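Lab meeting, item 3. Inverse folding demo.
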């Protein structure tokens, strides 16, 4: 577990994760607040429904970047691999429960991927390929995200075992965050692309 001055890094990672990319993009482009419209989720998928591909790409880029920035900061201050993993969890929690947005955040998938790209590119590659496969088969973004979260601890154990604990915790949180999507999937009411 982190200790001492490490908490400053974790707080910074949380605050970076708290930057509400979707809300900022929608406000800048004159779109509806994604927390109030569509699926009411401030993430790239909902922003795409509200404002199209460009708005979604900007949102996705913002969410990826804040995760990557949190890990880059951890690397720059010399954090070991375990602390970098905790920084990932802090950044993802920031996205899920953002300080700057009334604790009403998104699902955390893009922010997690942004972190993973700097933590372990082999793991990120496994996640992207698996997500893409599930999405191609089902054309449902949430199904691909949930399935990827379920399999990620195994991929992590095989590629970057030192991060298995923090990725397992992050995956569990992401699955819980998708509970409404899971109910819709079971009922056959989840949106397809």
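The presenter then showed the designed sequence:
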């Amino acid at each position: 577990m982190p200790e001492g001055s490490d908490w400053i890094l974790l707080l910074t990672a949380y605050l970076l994760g708290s930057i509400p990319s979707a809300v900022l993009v929608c406000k800048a482009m004159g779109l509806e607040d994604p927390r109030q419209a569509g699926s009411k989720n401030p993430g790239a998928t909902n922003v795409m429904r509200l404002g199209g591909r460009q708005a979604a790409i900007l949102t996705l880029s913002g969410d990826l970047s804040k995760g990557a920035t949190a890990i880059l900061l951890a690397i720059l201050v010399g954090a070991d691999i375990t602390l970098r993993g905790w920084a990932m969890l802090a950044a993802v929690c920031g996205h899920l429960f953002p300080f700057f947005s009334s604790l009403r955040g998104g699902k955390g998938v893009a922010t997690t991927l942004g972190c993973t790209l700097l933590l372990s590119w082999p793991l990120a590659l496994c996640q992207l390929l698996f997500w893409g496969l599930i999405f191609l088969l089902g054309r449902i973004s949430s199904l691909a995200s949930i399935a990827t979260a379920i399999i990620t601890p195994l991929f992590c154990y095989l590629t970057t075992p030192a991060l298995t604990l923090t990725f397992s915790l992050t995956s569990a949180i992401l699955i819980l965050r998708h509970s409404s999507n899971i109910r819709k999937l079971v009922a056959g009411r989840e949106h397809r692309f």
